[in-house]
Specification:
- The structure is a single chain.
- By secondary structure, this protein is of the alpha+beta class.
- It has one domain.
- Helices cover 19% and strands 35% of the residues.
- The chain has a seven-stranded antiparallel beta sheet with strand order 2-1-3-4-5-6-7, with helices on one face.
- β4 and β5 form a beta hairpin.
- The chain is globular and about 30 Å long.
- The protein starts with a strand and ends in a 13-residue tail after the last strand.
Length: 115
């Protein structure tokens, strides 16, 4: 099942594409959305978007385990929404519009940098 959250608040269980697009469009600076697959597979499976103070969208996704956690940025609200919807549909090409950086080391006990 898919769950759309803003912080700890569940916005929708089984969100629709129009809902996700609207919620990304409604983000305010320093606001974030998380779209998560729950009760489907073991591990953490999610994509999230954060509208940063500099008006860029930071996208991250995790494929099950901390070592498979990736991040990118875009200035495009549309691209951020399309990425979330592509992830939701399990479209294998959803990641292709971005250059992703593996940040999995940030989630290991030996990481000493800033998040």
């Amino acid at each position: 099942m898919l769950v759309l959250k803003s912080g700890p608040v569940v916005l929708s269980k089984r969100p629709t594409k129009p809902m996700i697009g609207a919620r990304v469009g409604d983000l305010r600076r320093d606001g974030a959305l998380v779209l998560e697959r729950v009760e489907e597979e073991s591990g953490d499976w999610y994509v999230q978007v954060w509208l940063r103070e500099d008006n860029t969208y930071q996208l991250e996704y995790r494929d099950g385990v901390p070592s498979e956690h990736y991040q990118t940025r875009t200035i495009s609200r549309e691209k951020a929404a399309e990425a979330m919807m592509g992830w939701m549909k399990r479209d294998p090409a959803w990641k292709d519009a971005f250059h992703w950086i593996n940040i999995g080391s940030m989630f290991k006990g030996d990481y000493q940098g800033d998040c």
